[in-house]
UniProtKB/TrEMBL annotation, chain A:
GO molecular function, one term: sulfurtransferase activity
Annotated keywords: Cytoplasm, Transferase
Protein name: DsrE family protein
UniProt-listed PANTHER family: PROTEIN YCHN (PTHR34874), SULFURTRANSFERASE TUSD (PTHR34874:SF3)
Any single biological process term in GO: tRNA wobble position uridine thiolation
Pfam hit, one: DsrE
Predominant place of localization: cytoplasm
Transmembrane segments: none
Subcellular location: Cytoplasm
Cellular component GO terms held in the UniProt record: sulfurtransferase complex
Family: Belongs to the DsrE/TusD family.
Superkingdom field: Bacteria
From TrEMBL, chain B:
Top-level taxon of the source organism: Bacteria
Name this protein carries in UniProt: DsrE family protein
Family that this chain belongs to: Belongs to the DsrF/TusC family.
One Pfam match: DsrE
Organism: Marinobacter lipolyticus SM19
PANTHER family: PROTEIN TUSC (PTHR38780:SF1)
């Protein structure tokens, strides 16, 4: 670990295929790890929660951003959380939310989890440490 | 650490601003200092007498009026944007502080988050 090691939380608010946010965030995450930094967690908010859906099936010559992120997260043991309020509005649910709302299916991809904004609050509290930052990847207006 | 949430989108065209407001309330719920800054068309959040029932949405005015009760420290609005959208002391909701230099304001906060 270099002496100037930083810890990053990445917040992604842009959806795959409508914005470049998930792609840019993945590029940042890979570069940060290569440089010896740490990714504390990834938080999906707003339209960003679509990244955690297991259902998108792009043409075979395009990148599946859910799978690309999923592989990265599992390879590096980085936790990723989708905001529950954003997720429920947009039809992204795990099995327990499927049961709670009696929905016909669940679609949360591995290893994503669903949790509250408290996860993001915790990251912002942690980021008051000098070496820690929360970085936002938006879809643009 | 004081967080500033910046809202630059008008209230009803997207859910982005509403979700930014949730971020602010969430920080406040965890006793973290937070303020809201409205710039560009985002200042329209602060207009009195919003009636979005016709588009099946709930007014954000009541949420903002409750912001201080929930622990949001201040509602800031860019003076130039208020002027552009015809907002003044007569039609702004209560408790809004207008600021002239948004750049300097941004510098005062350790953590600044824009609405997506």
């Amino acid at each position: 670990m270099p002496a100037d090691n930083h810890t990053f939380t990445l917040v992604i608010t842009g959806a795959p295929y409508s914005s470049q946010a998930p792609e840019t965030a993945l590029g940042f995450a890979q570069a940060a790890l290569r440089a010896g930094h740490t990714i504390d967690r990834v938080f999906l908010y707003g339209d960003g929660v679509h990244l955690a859906s297991s259902l998108p099936s792009p043409p075979s010559d395009e990148i599946n951003w859910t799978r690309a992120w999923s592989d990265f997260l599992q390879e590096h043991s980085v936790p990723a959380v989708a905001c529950i309020a954003s997720a429920l509005r947009r039809g992204l649910v795990n099995e327990s939310e499927q049961r709670r709302y009696q929905l016909p299916a669940s679609n949360l991809a591995t290893p994503f989890e669903i949790a509250g904004l408290g996860e993001w609050v915790e990251s912002t509290i942690k980021s008051s440490a000098q070496s820690s930052r929360v970085i936002y990847f938006h879809g643009g207006a | 650490m004081h967080t500033l949430i910046v809202i630059d989108q008008p209230p009803y065209g997207s859910w982005g601003g509403r979700e930014s407001l949730d971020m602010a309330f969430s920080l406040a719920a965890f006793d973290q200092p937070v303020s809201l800054l409205f710039i560009d068309a985002g200042v329209l959040w602060l207009k009195q007498g919003q009636e979005p029932g016709g588009i099946n949405q709930k007014s954000v005015e009541r949420n903002l009026a409750a912001a201080s009760i929930f622990g949001v420290e201040s509602l800031l609005a860019d003076t130039a944007a208020c002027h552009r959208f015809g907002l003044n002391e007569d039609n702004l909701i209560n408790g809004v502080t207008r600021i002239d230099n948004t750049g300097a304001t941004l510098q005062q906060y350790q953590h600044v988050a824009f609405s997506g």
